[in-house]
Design brief:
The chain is mainly beta and 101 residues long. 10% of the residues lie in helices and 48% in strands. It is built from 1 helix and 8 strands. Strands 1, 2, 3, 4, 5, 6, 7 and 8 form an 8-stranded mixed sheet that branches. Strand 6 and strand 7 form a beta hairpin.
Length: 101
């Protein structure tokens, strides 16, 4: 029996407003999409991983229920919604929901 090796592919787009969109897939199956960018200027500082979700409202609620703290409430932009949170151990992350999905 031959062992099948699954290829992981990450595509990082050119920067736009200090944000690099990232798409992932495994053998052409959808992965977790999102991006890497600068975090909010006020708190916490540094690079933030943005995780693309189907519903930002549901994802925020689940994160808070699991102990996360909302740093920046849901913000609306032309093509997406974005929020910044910090997990229970202090790791900052963003949640992003594309409007055109």
């Amino acid at each position: 029996m031959k062992e099948q090796i699954e290829a992981n592919r990450w595509k990082v787009a050119a920067p736009h407003w200090d944000y690099w969109a990232v798409t992932t897939c495994k053998n052409d199956r959808p992965g977790i999409d999102g991006g890497i960018g600068k975090g909010p200027n006020d708190y916490p500082h540094g690079t933030r991983i943005q995780i693309e979700v189907d519903s930002i409202d549901e994802a925020i609620a689940k994160a808070v229920e699991s102990g996360a703290m909302v740093v920046r409430e849901k913000m609306e932009f032309d093509e997406f919604y974005l929020a910044y949170l910090v997990d229970p151990v202090g790791l900052g992350f963003g949640l992003i929901e594309n409007k055109n999905r």
